[in-house]
Amino acid sequence: MIERACKIVAGALEMLAGVIRPGIRTKELEEYAEAYIHAKGGKPAFKGYRGYPASLCVSINNQVVHGIPSERRLQEGDIVSIDLGVIYEGYYGDAARSYAVGSIGELQRKLLEVTEKALYIGIEKAKAGNRVGDISSAIQTYVESNGFSVVRAFVGHGVGKFLHEEPQVPNFGKPGKGPRLKEGMTIAIEPMVNTGLPDVMILNDGWTAVTVDGGYSAHFEHTVVITKNGAQILTKLN
Ligand code: MF3
Ligand code: CO
Question: In the chain, what are the domains?
Answer without folding.
Answer: 2-233 (3.90.230.10)
